[in-house]
Amino acid sequence: MPRWIPERVWDNQDVFIIGGGKSLDGFDWKLLKNELTIGCNSAFRLGAEICKLCIFGDAKWFEVFQHDLRNYKGILFTNVYQLLKTKLDWIWTLPRKAHGLHKDALGWNDNTGASAINLAVLLGAKRIFLLGFDMHLSKDGKPNWHNHQIQKPNPDAYAKFLKGFVKVAADLKLKFPDVEVINITDNSNLNVFPKIGVKEFWEKRAL
Question: pTM above 0.90?
Answer without folding.
Answer: yes
